[in-house]
Design goal:
heterodimer, A: about 290 residues, MetI-like fold, B: about 375 residues, alpha+beta, Rossmann fold, OB fold (Dihydrolipoamide Acetyltransferase, E2P), five-stranded antiparallel β-sheet, 20 strands, elongated, ABC transporter permease subunit (chain A)
């Protein structure tokens, strides 16, 4: 016992020194890693901006011509508008399909949970190329039934994109649903007189707002960056037009790429603040 | 919902409605959760359904709430058949075992939620929510969110929320199970006080016999989807109708006995029997520990009722003493701690039975 006591009284200074050193080493290591990763992400982005503001090569004079061109070229503007519209429609339709389905499966058909999960994750395992082979004949019919004034509008791609975003949306919504007691909340609301629509809109949705926004953002990002399906089905969305413009002017393409990347970054940044409005957690004492 | 301006105090005079469950059946695959349950709850009555897990008590409550569909039978509220009515049209207040407050709303908003669905104006809504929170003693916490309240407070808000819609029936699905012992006892009494004040017909489901016996007007003991006994707490406790009830409610000694008319010979002592016992012959008497008395033996006397004390356990105001009666097995006696001092481990004691009627069952 005496030996232990002396060791305890003499040990701390030595220990503290070692601990402080290891903490310092940890902090330095962390800072180095952070800088490395920041560079990894920032350098290409800065290079994009740098390149898109030079007139001919890296030694040429500064110009905003390429950036201005984005706003002027009718083809780019149409593609931009259509892609944003497509992103919106896809997120809304996929959410409207998935959220009620997933809540219903949780409440009433728990045995189907695995099946629904499998179905929703399936698009992830099938290459876009293979999907297009299946969709091509369907899109022939879609094109046939599209009114003339909307002919060749890429907005009809929403059908395909709803399927493409499902895996990401499913994961995000599933995490959100797991974080609340859906069953009890729904039953409590029902017993108070709420119909199913009220349960969804006033009880389930507000409590998984950040998961829903997350899911929506993921699908927006995916739709804005989609090239393969649009290109193979011959629709001009943002990425396809970017690729076309690149044949004429690489500067405009680079400016467009930088712009769309920054747009998604801003969205992500905004999202990180949503769902944090709640006051800090306080544990009250029972009186 | 037209009498919106009726003050809460006037509700105390409003009589509750009668609830009748008639031959309710519910099957989960091969498992029968409810096997033809008949139960009538009188207006304003507080009935506790008690039983082990899987006995069907929660299923009965969920069928009454409309959260599950019956495979057979009827649910009558007043003279209305609500068997096919969806939950949100049944007008029943419910408190759940799991914390069920809406996390994105304050206590007041939670309580007002049901009133909002009934299109009651904001001022009136807030006034009534305030009254309800006062009823459960949480006026000061009205603007707190669920995560800022303790478990007991959350359940009290849930009770206020359930009562705010002035339901016809109050359903309590093990509302105290998630709480710790001290809060549980306080809240239990509070629920009873509020229920008496509002005068609402109430069904309370629990697996805790102490809870059921403490608050209910009548206790229904359930087993395997059937009601074994329904009666006032004292009757269920002291005159169990079936061996299951005798063994599930409270502790019981099983002591060999021979029935002879209206008395039983329990190891030589004559004890009156409950009419539902076996008619005659050998069996086991189910004797409550508090009906067993001990006398100190110092003269070396022997007999079937004399044995050695092998264990004593101190439970606060009372103590339990285990006596080894040899071939008749162990007998548990319960007595005030002040009288238990003379019966330490190893001492010899004589067992006597109080003349309370006992249930004798076949071995």
């Amino acid at each position: 016992m005496a030996a232990v006591t002396t060791e305890l009284t003499t040990a701390p200074p030595k220990n503290q020194g070692a601990r402080a050193r290891s903490a310092l080493r940890f902090r330095i290591g962390r800072a180095v890693l952070l800088v490395l990763f920041a560079l990894f992400f920032a350098v290409p982005l800065l290079a994009l901006i740098e390149f898109s503001t030079r007139s001919n090569d890296l030694t040429g004079p500064r110009t905003l011509e390429y950036w201005r061109y984005i706003g002027q070229d009718p083809e780019i503007r149409t593609a931009l508008r259509d892609s944003v519209l497509l992103a919106l429609i896809t997120s809304v339709v996929a959410l409207a399909l998935l959220l009620p389905t997933m809540v219903w499966v949780r409440l009433r058909l728990p045995k189907l949970h695995r099946v629904v999960e499998f179905l929703c994750l399936l698009p992830l395992t099938i290459p876009a190329l293979v999907l297009v082979v299946g969709w091509a004949p369907i899109y022939l019919w879609i094109a046939y039934f599209t009114p003339a004034q909307f002919d060749s509008s890429p907005v009809v791609l929403a059908f395909a994109y709803v399927i493409l975003v499902m895996p990401y949306m499913y994961r995000s919504l599933d995490a959100g649903l797991s974080s609340i007691d859906v069953r009890t909340l729904a039953e409590a609301a029902r017993s108070l007189g709420a119909g199913w629509f009220t349960v969804m809109a006033r009880v389930i949705m507000p409590n998984m707002l950040s998961a829903v926004l997350n899911a929506a953002l993921l699908s927006v990002a995916l739709v804005l960056g989609e090239f393969t399906v649009a290109s193979l089905l011959n629709y001009d969305n943002l990425q396809v037009v970017m690729n076309n413009v690149a044949q004429i002017s690489s500067g405009v393409t680079v400016a467009l790429a930088a712009a769309s990347l920054m747009f998604v970054f801003v969205l992500l940044f905004a999202l990180s603040f949503v769902g944090r409005r709640r006051p800090a957690r306080v544990i009250a004492e029972e009186k | 919902m037209t009498e919106t301006d009726t003050p809460v105090t006037a509700e105390a005079t409003r009589a509750g409605v009668e609830v009748r469950l008639e031959g309710l059946r519910r099957q989960y695959g091969a498992v029968t959760a409810l096997d033809g349950l008949d139960l009538t709850i009188k207006p304003g009555e507080f009935i506790a359904l008690l039983g082990p897990s899987g006995c069907g008590k929660t299923t009965a409550l969920r069928l009454l709430a409309g959260l599950e569909d019956a495979d057979g039978g009827r649910v009558m509220v007043g003279d209305k058949d609500v068997t096919r009515l969806p939950t949100n049209k049944r007008d029943m207040g419910m408190v759940f075992q799991a914390y069920s407050l809406f996390p994105h709303m304050t206590a007041r908003q939670n309580v007002a939620f049901g009133l909002r669905l009934r299109k009651i104006g904001e001022t009136e809504r807030n006034r009534r929510a305030g009254e309800m929170l006062e009823l459960v003693g949480l006026s000061a916490q009205a603007d707190r969110y669920a995560h800022q309240m303790s478990g007991g407070q959350q359940q009290r808000v849930a009770l206020a929320r359930a009562l705010a819609i002035r339901p016809t029936v109050l359903l309590l699905d093990e509302p105290l199970s998630a709480l710790d012992a001290k809060v549980r006892a306080t809240l239990r009494d509070e629920i009873r006080r509020v229920q008496l004040e509002v005068g609402i017909t109430t069904l309370f489901v629990t697996h805790d016999q102490e809870e059921a016996l403490a608050v209910a007007d009548r206790v229904g003991v359930m087993n395997a989807g059937r009601l074994e006994q329904l009666g006032p707490p004292t009757e269920v406790y002291s005159r169990p109708a079936t061996p299951f009830v005798a063994q599930f409610v409270g502790l019981s000694n099983r002591i060999p006995a021979t029935v002879n008319g209206s008395t039983a010979d329990v190891l030589g002592a004559a004890v009156p029997v409950i009419p539902s016992s076996v008619d005659s012959g050998e069996g086991f008497a189910l004797v409550r520990p508090e009906a067993v008395d001990l006398l100190p033996v110092t003269d070396g006397a022997t007999g079937p009722l004399v044995g050695q004390v092998i264990a004593t356990s101190f439970l606060g105001a009372v103590s339990r003493i285990t006596v080894d009666l040899g071939p008749a097995g162990l007998v548990l006696a319960q007595m005030p701690t002040s009288q238990a001092g003379g019966f330490g481990s190893g001492s010899v004691a004589r067992v006597t039975f109080r003349p309370d009627p006992v249930l004798v069952v076949k071995g």
